[in-house]
Write a structure and sequence with these properties.
This protein is of the alpha+beta class and 101 residues long. The chain is 24% helix and 22% strand.
Length: 101
């Protein structure tokens, strides 16, 4: 048997830096997020608003958000369960409900 050098020894793991949690879970693509959130330099200290639509198992959530250093802030939110006030009793998960929300 030939001598095999151990590549991942103790000094390797001392210098190993783990990826951020949401990157490890596969939830956030930080390169795409940075491109989406980045504001032009001549628009200093202005907010860049974006519309976020989330589909859960029972309803649709629409939010208007902007990014800060501390985290994303929600300005306004509407859910498809509010459609019952306006005469839509069922079907809060389909695309028509998302459009109405």
């Amino acid at each position: 048997m030939a001598f095999v050098k151990v590549l991942k020894n103790n000094s390797y793991f001392k210098r190993f830096q783990v990826k951020p949690r949401r990157r490890r879970e596969g939830k956030t693509d930080y390169r795409a997020r940075r491109k989406m959130v980045r504001q032009d330099k001549n628009k200093f200290n202005n907010k860049k608003y974006r519309l976020v639509v989330r589909f859960t198992n029972r309803k649709v959530i629409c939010q208007i958000m902007y990014a800060t250093i501390r985290g994303d802030m929600v300005v306004a939110q509407a859910t498809s369960t509010e459609l019952t006030k306006y005469g839509v009793p069922v079907g809060h998960k389909n695309y028509a409900a998302a459009y109405c929300t």
